[in-house]
Amino acid sequence: MPPKKIITKIRPWHVLLGAFSSGVILVAMVWILAPSLLDWGIRHLAAEAETEKFDMEVTRLDPWETGIENILIETKEADLSLGNLLLQYEPGGLATGEVNSFTLRNLNLKLDGKAVLDRMLAEQSQEADAESTLWLEQLGEYLSNPKLKTFRMFNAKTVWEWPDFSLPFEFKIKGDYNEGLASTIFDGEFAQFPFLSELHFWQEEGSTYGEVEIKFPDLNKSELLKYPFSRFTGLDFANEFKVESGDLVMQGIGRIDGNRFVDLFVEFNGSNIAGELLEFPFEIEKIISFVTPKNSSHVETRTYANISVEDFLDAKGLALGAEINEEKVTLRPSFQELRSADNFGNVKVSGLSLPVVDLNLSDLEDFSLKGSHDIFFDKLEIEEQGLSIYGGKLSVFADTDLDLFRVQVLPLNAILSDIGIRLFGLSFNGLGNLSNPLAGEMNQVLSCDRALVGEDSLVEDLSLTFRPHGTKKVVIDGLTAKLKGVFTDFNPANCSVSLLDETEGGYRVDFNDSDIRLGNNKIVLEGLTGSIAVKSFDPLLTVPENNLSFTKFTNDQFTLEDGNFSLAVNEEGEFLISDFSVRIFGGSLEVDLAKWKMYTDLIKVEAKLTEVSGQQMIDFFEGLDVQIDGNFSGMVSFSNYDGAWDFGTGFLQLNPSVNANIKFNQGELIYGGVDPTDPQSKNLKLTSWALEDLEVDGMGINFKVLENDRQIIMSINGSRETKDQRVDLDYNPRFLGGLQDLLKWKENLPFP
């Protein structure tokens, strides 16, 4: 039949007070009850304990000392053997119970653990609570007139035997008891678990005080206590927790008032404690705990520690305040510094204050995190991203019924040191799943009032909607902001940012049919697809080739369609666009290579145009009444100087066609303002008439740059013929001015 499992309801104050009181009681009873041990051992065990075997040898008996050897007692519950017992006393004092010295050697005791425990529980149930601590009231009397001066016990061994395990106990005792001061040293091993203890009682100004110190120099031996602990409590820690090294010291001091301790203060100190928790190796460099009982049901504790859990976290300056009142426990945790492991993003938090937790020890199963909780921190760092956040408050709203929680971060400031960006008014609002917080199903919103690169405002009024997918990928659903003062709408974003492998380094940005709108839809990029692999942000560097495409690009002047290109940023800080092709004006535009440096004044692009519609080019200039049938091809260059785009050297040539035709019905642009009497007036009017319906044989447009003066020179060859008139035209108009002048053509008339 398996042994009866004893599971006792433990109250919190019993645990804390017991840590001090048990040490005191264990040692003190040896001294207090020493005069009665001889009587109990010989008479009680022999007469009342149903002795099955009893034997002893009195080796000395005189007015000064009594010696007994080879004591043997066997009962149903215990087997006792004692090699030597020696009492030393004065003849006159023995009559009053005074003993100078009480020495025991070679004590061996075997106990039937279950039988003894059952008897102890039965006897305890019959005793009043006050009687269990009656010895405290007697302590003052013993200190005033100690009946025993010294007590020694050498080579003492006891074994508690159970059906399937045993608890060995080896110890020695040294006690010295004087008027007003009693000291006992109690050292030994319990289940090979070593301990060293000292107990002192003294009287001072009419009060009695007690002080105890218990040292556990080798916590590795606690492994041997797991099995019996689990048998008695029903709690099995064998596979979840173990200690491999370390030491622990308990110190306590208190004043005795009647049959209880008052003004009690207990301190625990641990050093270099290492072990394993849930298969995670942990180390506690230092831990100190202060316990202050207010009364038998109200205890306050303060604990400070440095703790590290391998591959999980490293906590420095842990401060845990606890208040235990009846069955209610209030916890107030905080950390000087908390750092996660690399595989958790290498996050570091300084000055962290966690929410206050209220527990009901009588109903722990109903404990819930449901509700609102505030977390404060001085600084949060995500080292891999170079992100530092300062002075924050994080609010968590948990709904355990729905397995959901919401996180809100009020506006704060941050720095992205790797890319030199400062963030002001940064806030966060997100929804997560308690069972899988990084599942990527819940939208998160990040907002920022302003972001600075150096002293330049880069972003204002940022709102970013995203979803985390694990620890290495973020899906961006939408983004709105002012970029350099221009309103930007990235929606639908259909974009993701992924952390690349360590061998590659950096990030990859993937676009999947993304739309970008700038300046209240003045510029629209639709259907952006492809990826950009960024190796670093400071300096900005990408892989050599990043292939992208888009379906449509529009502004208030022209439209580009079906764009494809490769984008890169090299180690010299140059932006490179290669293999660029796009549909424009019904034809195509191609750029083999374009490059420029960030923040430079000059950007130059050479483009090849193929089969672009002459009519669509004309329609680009609003208000110009011209119709042209025919497509153009050629090379055109563009440059950006001081932020203003303009054309450079290039040409366009009308592609051969039997149906090429021009209809220009604004003759006043040709002959307007010319004196009718001028000999050129007639020729200009004939030119104008021919251009009203000209069959084009050839047409070219040349773009020239001479000492920063730009010209557009055209050559038009063709003819117009009616039954009344025919004109063969060779017309070479010239326009002076650049691109901006051309866009404002009405202000630059007439054509020369």
Descriptive notes:
The chain has a 43-stranded mixed sheet that branches. The protein has eleven helices and 43 strands. The longest helix is centred in the N-terminal third of the chain and has 21 residues, at 12-32. Strand 31 and strand 32 form a beta hairpin. It is mainly β and 752 residues long. The model is unreliable at 1-41, 127-132 and 748-752 (pLDDT under 50). It is rod-shaped, with a radius of gyration of 47 Å. Among the domains are: 1-240, no CATH class; 585-752, no CATH class.
Offer a few descriptive terms:
single chain; 14% helix; disordered C terminus
Write the layout of secondary structure elements.
Elements: H1 12-32, H2 34-48, E1 53-61, E2 65-74, E3 78-88, H3 91-94, E4 99-112, H4 113-126, H5 129-132, H6 134-144, E5 148-161, E6 166-178, E7 181-190, E8 193-204, E9 207-216, H7 226-233, E10 241-257, E11 260-277, E12 280-295, E13 298-309, E14 313-325, E15 328-340, E16 347-353, E17 357-360, E18 371-382, E19 387-399, E20 404-416, E21 421-433, E22 444-453, E23 456-468, E24 473-483, E25 486-490, E26 495-499, E27 507-518, E28 523-537, E29 540-542, E30 547-554, E31 559-569, E32 574-584, E33 587-597, E34 602-613, H8 614-619, E35 626-629, E36 631-641, E37 644-647, E38 650-654, E39 661-664, H9 668-671, H10 679-691, E40 694-706, E41 709-721, E42 726-731, E43 734-736, H11 739-743
Parallel strand pairs: 4-5
Antiparallel strand pairs: 1-2, 2-3, 3-4, 5-6, 6-7, 7-8, 8-9, 9-10, 10-11, 11-12, 12-13, 13-14, 14-15, 15-16, 15-17, 16-18, 18-19, 19-20, 20-21, 21-22, 22-23, 23-24, 24-25, 24-26, 25-27, 26-27, 27-28, 28-29, 28-30, 30-31, 31-32, 32-33, 33-34, 34-36, 35-39, 36-37, 36-38, 38-40, 39-40, 40-41, ...
